[in-house]
Automatic annotation (TrEMBL):
InterPro entries per record: 4Fe4S_Fe-S-bd (IPR017896), NADH-UbQ_OxRdtase_51kDa_CS (IPR001949), Nuo51_FMN-bd (IPR011538), Nuo51_FMN-bd_sf (IPR037225), Nuop51_4Fe4S-bd (IPR019575), Nuop51_4Fe4S-bd_sf (IPR037207), Soluble_ligand-bd (IPR019554), Thioredoxin-like_sf (IPR036249)
The family this protein is said to belong to: Belongs to the complex I 51 kDa subunit family.
Name of the protein in question: NAD-reducing hydrogenase subunit
Molecular function per GO: 4 iron, 4 sulfur cluster binding; FMN binding; metal ion binding; NADH dehydrogenase (ubiquinone) activity
Phylogenetic lineage: Bacteria, Bacillati, Chloroflexota, Anaerolineae, Anaerolineales
Domain 4Fe-4S ferredoxin-type intervals: 537-566, 567-594
């Protein structure tokens, strides 16, 4: 297969054809022959570029991705000489920047850099030609025609890409392990089980740019020598499953999947498998058991999947975002990727920013950015201009970091050192009115519920942790509870079989470390400093402020409020169930929490 240094995609949508697209193609080919460049530059037709009504006829030159518009055949000799011979972009022919904005993502915010999300909202995920027009499958063509599997692994290793699913293992090294395993069959798996509550980074990529994941998987398959792949996608993502199946079908039709890909003799195919709701099935050994049709339970490692994975064969398993980075690394080079991030954490990372920030949602930022920049520059600061209290990174097994860590760079090592994790990209910001004991209880409720029960420290230990935390929040904390929590955290962390048990104590351990005074206030003073834990608060009416309007009394679901019209009202604390409705409906701010 010939390798071209540049590809020129000419739009042949009806509008562009009407405006002379075919004459542009002829003029380009003639000029490339005349200037001796026809073996280096390939001219291709594509179904659509940009907005045909505004521009037309349009061309895009790759790998630079330069978009020229409103061309006439007379412009072509100058364009070919300047762009392809002299390497200078011809600004006067350049199209105005596309202004397509993804509704869910919105326009990139300050400090955002979109690599993984670059095509989201820009291309039609159900049209492979859209992806091709945005340099899609060029990395695959380059790999198959110009690179050995070792060179591919070397490029990915040099880029410094680390797994985006949680553990942050070096992707190139993982591929090398799998390549080194000798077997008659090898597999590639994409972990699309995204189960962290509130996280939807992977869903967005699968629904908006499925081919970037598929292309990354084909490249990985070539690198390790696999012939079959599976995308394990959670069943709660029906649109992602549908989009993936359409994309796989189209990739087969275009010769990117199946037998003899692009005529190179390399064969690889893909299937989507659906996971049915168990968080633990995101753990790689449980995931593989689930694909094999067995109960999704983790097993001890080693052997690692690279040695013995699906059906006992060497298997490479990576996260959606990890694969989506690969085509860009191949096209733009390891050095480009490694130029973003920190010494040990390269590239960008997507996060689902949630909680008490002004702008919640999906973001993609270069690693090494500080937590402060994420909260204040990207997230717009704390809602209602309240104070910052903590940020929880890494999903339900992550830790809560206080304000003193706001200038911490977001990288794998720094977060772990601080007592949290990168995880797959969950990020919850909490304001000053958050109770950290209650937050620890909330996350423990999730992990305890999701424990598969295979090993005792996790099955019983998380339940004991939850019981103690619940007791403390209910005002029944006892002397010695803090020590009991610490001991349990240590035992569960060290004795659990898989990452769920090993990580489950993180929210408790980190809040004990950084917000110990809140535990002490709950246990010894029977007080919730954030005024959140119902059992430890009382609602009271300030007589001087109360106008006796009766609104609260009429809305109280348990008739706990009494008082004459135009006279100060009173709450009976023995009847009150602390629902907070009276406080919401009082127009005179006469109700306070003590
Ligand atoms: C309980 C649990 C849930 C996990 N869920 C996911 C998940 O939803 N997606 C994912 O990619 N990795 C998940 N992982 C991590 C995987 O086990 C594995 O490390 C990852 O898929 C490897 O891909 P990477 O190297 O590209 O990160 C989970 C791990 C644990 C312990
Ligand atoms: S640590 Fe928890 S989730 Fe993991 S195998 Fe043991 S019981 Fe199951
Ligand atoms: S709603 Fe407010 S002002 Fe009206 S009676 Fe109740 S506490 Fe008093
Ligand atoms: S908090 Fe709820 S139950 Fe208590 S007094 Fe107000 S409305 Fe009634």
């Amino acid at each position: 297969m010939a390798f071209y240094r540049s590809h020129v995609l000419v739009s042949v949508d009806p509008e562009c054809v009407k405006r002379g697209a075919h004459q542009i193609i002829d003029a380009l080919n003639d000029e490339l022959v005349a200037q001796g460049l026809i073996d280096e530059i390939q001219v291709l037709e594509t179904s659509r570029i940009g907005d045909p009504v505004l521009f037309g006829p349009d061309i895009i030159v790759y790998p630079e991705g330069v978009h020229y518009a409103c061309l006439s055949p007379d412009d072509i000799p100058y364009l070919v000489e300047e762009h392809f011979l002299k390497g200078r972009i011809v600004e006067k022919f350049r199209a105005q920047e596309k202004k397509i904005v993804d509704e869910e993502l919105g326009a990139p915010k300050a400090k955002e850099v979109r690599v993984v999300l670059r095509n989201c909202g820009v291309i039609d995920p159900n049209n492979i030609e859209d992806y091709i027009a945005e340099d899609g499958y060029m990395a695959l063509a380059k790999v198959l025609s110009d690179m050995t599997p070792e060179q591919v692994i070397d490029e990915v290793t040099r880029s410094g890409l680390r797994g985006r699913g949680g553990a942050g293992f070096l992707t190139g090294r993982k591929w090398q392990f799998c390549r080194n395993s000798q077997a008659d069959m090898k597999y590639i798996v994409c972990n699309a089980d995204e189960g962290d509550p509130g996280a939807f980074m992977n869903r967005r990529v699968l629904e908006s740019d499925p081919h970037s994941v598929i292309e990354g998987m084909i490249i990985a398959a070539y690198a390790i020598g696999a012939r079959q792949g599976y995308i394990y996608c959670r069943a709660e993502y029906p649109l992602a499953v549908k989009t993936l199946n359409i994309a796989i079908k189209q990739a087969r039709e275009f010769g990117f999947l199946g037998e003899n890909i692009l005529g190179t003799g390399f064969s690889f195919d893909l299937e989507v498998r659906q996971g049915a709701g168990a968080f633990v099935c995101g753990e790689e050994t449980a995931l593989m058991a689930s694909i094999e049709g067995r109960r999704g339970e983790p097993r001890p490692r080693p052997p690692f999947p690279a040695v013995s994975g699906l059906w006992g064969k060497p298997t490479n398993i990576n996260n959606v975002e990890t694969y989506a980075n690969v085509p860009q690394i191949i096209l733009k080079g390891a050095d480009w990727f490694a130029s973003m991030g920190t010494e040990k954490s390269k590239g960008t990372k997507t996060f689902a920013l949630a909680g008490d920030v002004k702008h919640t949602g999906l973001i993609e930022v270069p690693l090494g950015i500080t937590l402060r920049e994420i909260v204040y520059d990207v997230g717009g600061g704390i809602k209602d201009d309240k104070g910052f209290k903590a940020i929880q990174t890494g999903g339900p097994m992550g830790g809560c970091l206080p304000a003193e860590f706001l200038d911490l760079p977001v990288d794998y090592e720094s977060l772990t050192q601080a007592g949290s994790i990168m995880g797959s990209g969950g990020m919850v910001v909490m304001d000053e009115e958050t109770c950290m004991v209650d937050i620890a209880r909330f996350f423990m409720e999730f992990t305890q519920e999701e424990s598969c029960g295979k090993c005792t420290p996790c099955r019983i230990g998380t339940r004991r942790l939850l019981e103690i935390l619940t007791r403390i929040c209910e005002g029944k904390g006892e002397d010695g509870d803090i020590e009991r929590l610490e001991e349990l955290c240590d035992q569960i962390r060290t004795a659990s079989l898989c990452g769920l048990g090993q990580g489950a104590p993180n929210p408790v351990a980190s809040t004990l470390k950084y917000f110990r005074h809140e535990y002490e206030a709950h246990i010894y003073e029977k007080r919730c400093p954030a005024k959140v834990c119902r059992a430890l608060i009382t609602y009271e009416i300030v007589p001087e402020t109360c106008t006796g309007c009766t609104v609260c009394a009429r809305n109280c679901p348990v008739n706990a409020i009494t008082g004459e019209r135009r006279q100060p009202h009173k709450i009976d604390p023995d009847i009150c169930v602390r629902c907070g409705i009276c406080m919401q409906v009082c127009n005179f701010n006469a109700i306070v929490i003590n």
